[in-house]
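Incident log, support desk, overnight shift.

02:14 A customer reports that sequence design results differ from what the structure should imply. Their input is reproduced verbatim below. On-call engineer (initials T.W.) acknowledged and began investigating.
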């Protein structure tokens, strides 16, 4: 059993008041109030400064309508690719050019456009609702975005699509051969960076 404390009458705390949170115990901060007449005087006394560019020209006759100032238009420079985009392009170049072609690559090159259409129709049959937000996309981009969002093949951030496909194949996750076909046949038309990666950066 813990020892009990004895209350001793401390003279400094005996006279201490208790806190009250009601409306009677309201404490306000003192403020220095300035009369409104002083404020209006300080506002009126500020001089109006007009830049030289906006002053009317005295030599020309005055017109009621001011002509808008013509500014030179500089052509827009194309934006440089993001650092992540450059890294992913390097990964894709290594995967497609320097890696030896295996059996999967040869099978993927034999996949026709009709096979891609049949694959996509099969994927769409399993869905309950149509993909309204992807109506303007082409077939190849739809297949690749579906692959990007399929989490069973591993993360898609910071890795080229073809490298992700090869990694999933190496781990026996059975990635769709149609994705590799799109990546190999149309490598100039499709982006190697996953759509989710673009959104996150």
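02:41 Re-run completed on a clean worker. Output:
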């Amino acid at each position: 059993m813990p020892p009990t404390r004895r209350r001793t009458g401390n003279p400094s705390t005996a006279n201490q008041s208790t806190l009250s949170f009601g409306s009677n115990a309201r404490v306000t901060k003192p403020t220095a109030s300035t009369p409104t007449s002083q404020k209006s005087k300080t506002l009126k006394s500020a001089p109006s400064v007009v830049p030289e560019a906006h002053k009317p020209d005295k030599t020309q006759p005055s017109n009621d309508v001011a002509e808008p100032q013509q500014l030179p238009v500089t052509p827009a420079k194309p934006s440089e690719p993001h650092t992540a985009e450059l890294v992913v392009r390097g990964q894709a170049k290594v995967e497609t050019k320097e890696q030896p072609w295996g059996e999967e690559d040869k099978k993927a090159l034999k996949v026709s456009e009709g096979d891609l259409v049949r694959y996509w129709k099969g994927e769409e049959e399993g869905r309950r609702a149509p993909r309204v937000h992807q109506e303007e996309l082409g077939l190849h981009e739809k297949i690749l975005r579906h692959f990007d969002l399929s989490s069973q093949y591993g993360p898609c951030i910071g890795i080229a699509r073809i490298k992700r496909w090869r990694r999933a194949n190496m781990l026996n996750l059975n990635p769709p051969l149609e994705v590799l076909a799109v990546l190999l046949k149309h490598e100039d038309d499709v982006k190697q960076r996953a759509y989710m990666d673009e959104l996150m950066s």
